[in-house]
Amino acid sequence: MTEGIRARGPRSSSANSVPLILDIEDFKGDFSFDASFGNLVNDLLPSFLEEEADSGDGHGNVDGLANGHLRGQSTPLSSAPFFPEVDGLLSLFKDACKELVDLRKQVDGRLNTLKKEVSTQDAKHRKTLTEIEKGVDGLFESFARLDGRISSVGQTAAKIGDHLQSADAQRETASQTIDLIKYLMEFNGSPGDLMELSALFSDDSRVAEAASIAQKLRSFAEEDIGRQGAGTAAGNATAGRGLEVAVANLQDYCNELENRLLSRFDAASQRRDLSTMSECAKILSQFNRGTSAMQHYVATRPMFIDVEVMNSDIRLVLGDHGSQPSPSNVARGLSALYKEITDTVRKEAATITAVFPAPNEVMAILVQRVLEQRVTGILDKILAKPSLMSPPSVQEGGLLLYLRMLAVAYERTQELAKDLRAVGCGDLDVEDLTESLFSSHKDEYPEHEQASLKQLYQAKMEELRAESQQVSESSGTIGRSRGASVSSSQQQLSVTVVTEFVRWNEEAITRCTLFSSQPATLAVNVKAIFTCQLDQVSVYITEGLERARDGLTEAAALRERFVLGTSVSRRVAAAAASAAEAAAAAGESSFKSFMVAVQRCGSSVAIVQQYFANSISRLLLPVDGAHAASCEEMSTALSKAEAAAYKGLQQCIETVMAEVDRLLSSEQKATDYRSPDDGIAPDHRPTNACMRVVAYLSRVLESAFTALEGLNKQAFLTELGNRLEKLLLTHWQKFTFNPSGGLQLKRDLNEYVVFVKSFGAPSVDEKFELLRIIANVFIVAPDSLPTLFEGSPSIRKDAQRFIQLREDYKSAKLATKLSSLWPSMS
Predict the structure, then answer these.
(1) Residue 319: phi, psi to the nearest 5?
(2) What single string gives the DSSP state of each residue in 204-250?
(3) Could you tell me the superkingdom of the organism this chain comes from (predicted)?
(4) Could you point out which of 239, 349, 438, 540 has its C-alpha 20 to 30 Å from the C-alpha of 589?
(5) CB atoms within 10 A of CB 637
């Protein structure tokens, strides 16, 4: 590559420089303007540099020269030009510009020439391509015509082939028909004569071919007989009879051949020769689709013909003879037995798959035989359906044992069905077949379940009565006065017993869920079973409350027995008082026993309601109205217990009021409220009768506070408080009060008010507060009585009765003084 543009000729500083000669080659490749420009001017610039160096040496101060001028000097330099080569450079640049213009014209000329040549060549090329495209189109048309001819020839050849194949098939069919007619004529000889048959039918190596031909002949002959049976012509009838001979002979031959193959199959089976078994099964499949071979194979399995296998199954599930099997042992035995059956079926499945052309059909027959023979045999041993008229005793397991056995057997057999389905059972609906094994048991299941619950209930009641009788006998002859409390305490309600009822029902509902596949059926059965429990709980707690009430009734009878008249001797009165104390103790014991019974009754009802909410209600939803009906039945069943509890609580109030009345009558002295004015300091304690009554109520009502809850507790205590208030009013009207006695009454009332506040009954609190106000009539002076109740006219009537109990009522002529103010006093 050239280094740049160079000037051709000698270097000179004059304007008449030698013209430049530029070469077009200088512009090819990696062209650099700087390098080209330097090569162009370097021949002129070095002469200027040498002269400049010489001028600097002569003058000694060139530092003052800047931009062509001297600094600090007013005198200019020599008149000689400062850049003498400028003319040469200008000439050089002009020549170079001229040369460049000439080169550009040369390049443009060449480009025009090349454009013309390219255009000419492009036209030629396009013309050539057009000619080639026309040739290719013609070639494609030739190929299309050739492909059409080839396709036409192929179709013609295919038709010829089809005709040839059809002709060959017809020829083959005709040949086979000729052979079949010949064989049919052989079978159409004498009835039972199979001695003159072709060698084909006696050659063991051609058994498959013989079986196929015999089946074809038999099918043809039977069809012909069917057609002839519809005809009426005599000739047809004769032909029909002739073929009937052939059909009979063919049937005999097929039976004989089938027996031979079955014998060969059995022999191969004993040797475990699977290939021979498979060959025989394939041939036998032509006889009734191989049904006889399949059934024969299944029937000859050891588990169906070996008696020892069945005995082993019974021993595995039921254990030794004479022992009572338990559900848990039966469950383990069935699990082991069914596992062994599944393993056996799995091994047979491998053989069946290798031998039979239709293994699914054989597996269906095998599994069906397993369920109907082996499983049914063991189920019949463990599920002896008991009679509802004379069920087995509870000591023998009762109906519950049968139901538990049924549940265990059903659950394990369902698991077996799933395992057999996994192994393979063809098109057999193994689940439906399993259900059919238990159909007779499931049809009567609800009746057996309810009968079992009733049997368990009766047995439990007998057990409780026996325990009560045993305790009663072991206690000996306890005082007759305490007989009621002892009797009732020994037959007290038990939450444990109700919990046991619920546990029975839970177990029954679990079985019901297991046996009832349809939600509607399940809801109906669950409702019946739960209703049975409701009846049992209702009867149990009602009878328990009635027994507790009997104690209250007996205590009341004891109190009535020792009520004496006024004119009795001191000795008789002392004996009666002692007996009354014993009756009071019996009453208190009976009260506490009844409260315990009420508490346990409430706990039992809560258990049943919680059980219904958690376990029963959701199962009743699929049937419209079932949930509401069960709630109504539960309310009705428990209403009997509520009625007994209400009567008992009324008796409890009567018992408490009777004892309070007895304590007040025996402990309250006339001098308590009419103490003499003897100067002795007054006693600021309540009267002995008041303290005895409050102590008694605090002691006896402790059990009520514990046993009762909510509205029941509030209603009971309110009624008791009202009765207590009335009793105290009646009691105090028997006495005469002086001012000191009025103060004593106020102290008693304060004690009663403090006590009844624990009842939490506002109406009772209000009545006792009014009593405290009324008691002021004994304290104030007679002149202050008219103004005492001016703001409380509602209690004026009771106040009037109390005023009449004042000691000075007559002496102070209070009736006359108050009659003008309170007309009712007159």
Answers:
(1) 80, -160
(2) GGGHHHHHHHHHHHHHHHHHHHHHHHH---HHHHHHHHHHHHHHHHH
(3) Eukaryota
(4) 540
(5) 21
pLDDT in tens, 17-53: 445 556 777 777 777 777 777 777 777 776 545 555 5
| Main-chain dihedrals φ then ψ at residue 70, nearest 5 degrees | -95, 140
- Cβ(389)–Cβ(339) under 8 Å? no
Q: 432-458: string of b/e by CB count within 10 Å (b at 16+)? A: ebbbebbeebbeebbebbbbbbebbbe
How far CA 524 is from CA of 402, 445, 627, 629, 813, in Å, comes to 22, 13, 10, 11, 81
Does the pLDDT at position 787 exceed 80? no
In whole angstroms, give the CA distance from residue 370 to residue 311: 15
Q: How far, in Å, CA of 596 to CA of 504, rounded? A: 25
DSSP one-letter code for 463: H
pLDDT at 191 over 80: no
Q: How many CB atoms lie within 10 A of CB 463?
A: 12
Per DSSP, helices labelled H in 375-518 are 376-382, 398-423, 430-437, 439-443, 445-474, 483-490, 495-515
- The burial of 649, by beta-carbon neighbours within 10 Å (0-12 exposed, 13-18 middle, 19 or more buried), is given as buried
The two most distant CA atoms of the chain are separated, in Å, by 187
Question: What are the tens digits of pLDDT across the range 571-612?
Answer: 666 666 777 788 888 888 888 988 899 999 999 999 999 999
Q: CA separation (Å) from 620 to 522, 528, 634?
A: 8, 11, 14
Region of residue 482 (phi > 0: left; psi between -120 and 50: alpha; otherwise: beta)? alpha
Q: How far apart are alpha carbons 513 and 518 in whole angstroms?
A: 9
688-724 pLDDT, tens digit per residue, is: 999 999 999 999 999 888 888 888 899 999 999 999 9
Residue type, 202: S
Give the pairing of strands 65-66 and 69-70: antiparallel
DSSP-assigned states of every residue in 250-274: HHHHHHHHHHHHHHHHHHHHHHT-H
The pLDDT value recorded for residue 12 is 39
- C-alpha to C-alpha distance for 99 and 93, rounded to whole angstroms: 10
CA–CA dist 767, 62 (Å, integer)? 141
CB atoms within 10 A of CB 380: 10
Q: Can you tell me which residue has the tokens 């394939």?
A: 282
Contact 430, 476 (CB under 8 A): no
Q: What is the mean pLDDT of residues 491-503?
A: 89
Give residue 188's pLDDT: 55
Q: In 3D, which of 735, 734, 775 has the Cα closest to residue 751?
A: 775
DSSP assignment of 538-602: HHHHHHHHHHHHHHHHHHHHHHHHT---SS--HHHHHHHHHHHHHHHHHHHHHHHHHHHHHHHHH
Which tens digits make up the pLDDT trace of 449-486? 999 999 999 999 998 888 888 877 776 544 444 444 44
Under a CB-based contact definition with an 8 Å cutoff, are residues 547 and 491 in contact? yes
pLDDT band at 668 (very low <50, low <70, confident <90, very high): confident
Q: Is the pTM here over 0.70, yes or no? A: no
| Distance (Å, whole) CA 521 – CA 790 | 74
- Phi-psi group of 780: left, alpha or beta (phi > 0 → left; psi -120 to 50 → alpha; rest → beta): beta
Read off the tokens for 544: 């328990």
Exposed, middle or buried: residue 736 (CB in 10 Å: 0-12, 13-18, 19+)? Answer: middle
- Cβ within 8 Å of residue 621, ≥6 positions away: 523, 627
Say if residues 596 and 703 touch (Cβ distance below 8 Å). Answer: yes
Structural contact between residues 524 and 623, judged by C-beta atoms closer than 8 angstroms: yes
